[in-house]
């Protein structure tokens, strides 16, 4: 399945998710607030998290059907599923709104950020609104188990932000520590999006464990690719300047590997830059990219992402073959090949 | 019951609430995050919201006991109640952390704000953490009905912030509109703290309605008194500079009344100042306070608060007489007489 086929298969699901979100926004009293959350959410996002919830719920439901029923088409998901799925887009949107305030970011995906269009206060409050609605819907639609999963993931995300801040420019950072931050930052929410879908469809213990493995591995791979794109991405596609992570002193996998495994003289250039000032790091980003590349940092990270996706795909083997499974496999491959 | 007696009666409950919060903070992994939320929560707050949850739950439980059991002492609240009650302190703390970032506030209750001790990012994330934990605990301890009440109150708070921003320096603002903002900003959370306590103790429909009336009226009175203290408070007690609201162009009840009902020439001074710049408003705060006072704005607002408290006390008549009821009555009187 190529990328175009995948996107056209996903389009109807994305429409349903967008409709559920638009209906929810219609309940907001303040016109300004409605405008801001709309800007924060309908900004070209790929809806990966809610799609995972929907697809996993379908896969689990199909696998749990009695043997006689072989046609997956007979299984139309309850409308509630889209309301539960959108919780993950709300949480993601809330964290982007706050992240952009924290990073003083001007643009995201080529569009002005909410803190630029309006101001920081507006973006903070709109993020709080999405957060509150997300948690409320999580509990009311998904029940206590879903709320607990989502609550854990969200608090892990924040704990990981603090851990990451603590790791800035720590040139001795271990891979283990790097993955601990990733697991909290992105992995936790992607993992929860998958597990909540499984819970909602009545997964048994083994099925939940398989889905957790799938979600964790996919979430980590997603973030490793993000860290690669930060160095190697096309600025027009990603809508972000390259080299941001290095400028901020963020210790990501390609950099950690290059310092630890590359030639010592080149490693010293990197550690000296990390001990220095951000503008100097920004100015020398091309040289840095070459050093990391020659030390094998990018191919190492790429291999790491490949291994994670292989683990994710293996976990799916516990489920019946069907179109939804094909789609999830294609989505996992897409995570590896995406360019934005 | 005087203030000292009230506080000594409440102290053991406050201890239990503080213990529940400290136990919750012990689960945080990042030492920095733990430090920040501790700073945000253990900052001399009066714990009014969680106390209301606990006291209302006791009052309802006592009222619902069979006639034979007359001794309220036999009724010890389940430990869960304190975990549910602390949700309101978390939500309050989260909103203060974010408000201080939004207002660029340096101090609160005479102590440096988190955005001053650390930075805005840290305060935003710590607020998000409290918010997430609050919503999760609300659902897991209180169940769906409590989560729904708390979710509604929190989103109403944010909607009201936007409404308030829209009303700044609107010299034609109606009292109705003023109360709509209050209802969202403070009333909603205080009302929810009361109603959640009632739900938790198994209140029937009439009892819930009575508690809702009590909570709404108390919450509004609390905020009217806050608005009075902003003009008339003692800076040493409140820990806040007086005249902030007027400097920011916030249309509160004393000001609305003075413009509408006071002499036209004095009203023009106020509206001209509101159309002008903040530093000018700040510089002339003594003159403004005299104008509002002579127009009867403060006594009008004070009467409004008295009427609200009378309505709150009347709503309590639906419940059995007991020590908890005395305490709630004293707490309602305290709201009127507080000076910080």
Question: What descriptors fit this protein?
Answer:
homodimer, 340 residues, mainly alpha, Farnesyl Diphosphate Synthase, 16 helices
Describe the secondary-structure layout.
The structure is a homodimer of 340-residue chains.
Chain A: H1 3-25, H2 31-41, H3 48-64, H4 80-102, E1 107-108, E2 111-112, H5 114-117, H6 120-167, H7 175-200, H8 205-232, H9 235-238, H10 244-247, H11 253-261, H12 264-275, H13 278-283, H14 285-294, H15 297-316, H16 323-337
Antiparallel strand pairs in A: 1-2
Helix pairs in contact in A: 1-4, 1-16, 2-6, 3-4, 3-7, 3-16, 4-6, 4-7, 6-7, 7-8, 8-15, 11-12, 11-14, 11-15, 15-16
Total number of strands of chain A: 2
Largest interface, C-beta within 8 A: A-B, 40 and 40 residues
Mean pLDDT of chain A: 90
Which strand order does the major sheet of chain A show? Answer: 1-2
Class by helix and strand content of chain A? mainly alpha
Whole-angstrom Rg of chain A:
20 Å
Q: How is the CATH topology of chain A named?
A: Farnesyl Diphosphate Synthase
Find the CATH superfamily of chain A.
Farnesyl Diphosphate Synthase
State the helix count of chain A.
16
**Helix content estimate of chain A:** over 70%
User: What general form of chain A does the structure show?
Assistant: globular
Measured by DSSP, the beta-strand proportion of chain A falls in under 5%
Distance between the termini of chain A: 19 Å
CATH class of chain A: Mainly Alpha
CATH architecture classification of chain A: Orthogonal Bundle
Please indicate the count of domains of chain A.
1
- Biggest sheet details of chain A: 2 strands, antiparallel
Oligomeric state of shown chains: homodimer
Question: Uncertain segments of chain A of ≥5 residues (pLDDT<50)?
Answer: none
């Amino acid at each position: 399945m190529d990328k175009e086929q995948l996107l056209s298969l996903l389009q109807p699901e994305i429409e349903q998710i967008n409709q559920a979100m638009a209906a929810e926004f219609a309940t907001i009293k303040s016109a300004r607030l409605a405008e801001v959350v709309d800007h924060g959410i309908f900004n070209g996002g790929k809806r990966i998290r809610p799609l995972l919830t929907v697809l996993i719920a379908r896969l689990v439901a199909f696998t749990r059907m009695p043997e006689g029923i072989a046609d997956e088409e007979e299984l139309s998901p309850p409308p509630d599923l889209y309301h539960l799925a959108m919780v993950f887009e709300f949480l993601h949107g809330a964290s982007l709104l706050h992240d952009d305030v924290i990073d003083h970011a001007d643009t995201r995906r080529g569009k002005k950020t909410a803190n630029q269009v309006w101001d920081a206060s507006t973006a903070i409050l709109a993020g709080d609104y999405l957060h509150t609605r997300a948690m409320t819907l999580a509990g009311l639609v998904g029940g206590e188990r879903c709320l607990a999963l989502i609550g854990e993931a969200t608090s892990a995300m924040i704990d990981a932000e603090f851990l990451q801040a603590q790791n800035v420019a720590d040139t001795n950072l271990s891979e283990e520590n790097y993955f601990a931050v990733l697991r909290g930052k992105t992995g936790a929410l992607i993992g929860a999006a998958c597990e909540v879908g499984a819970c909602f469809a009545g997964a048994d213990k083994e099925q939940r464990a398989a889905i957790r493995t799938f979600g964790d591995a996919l979430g980590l791979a997603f973030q490793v690719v993000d860290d690669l794109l930060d160095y190697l991405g096309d600025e027009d596609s990603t809508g972000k300047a390259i080299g941001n992570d290095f400028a901020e002193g963020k210790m990501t996998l390609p950099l950690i590997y290059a310092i630890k495994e590359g030639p010592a003289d080149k490693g010293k250039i990197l550690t000296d830059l990390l001990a220095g000032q951000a503008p100097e790091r920004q100015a020398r980003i091309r040289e840095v990219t070459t050093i990391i590349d020659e030390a094998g940092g990018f191919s190492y990270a790429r291999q790491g992402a490949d291994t994670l996706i292989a683990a994710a795909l293996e976990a799916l083997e516990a489920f019946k073959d069907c179109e939804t499974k094909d789609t999830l496999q294609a989505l996992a491959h897409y995570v590896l090949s995406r360019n934005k």
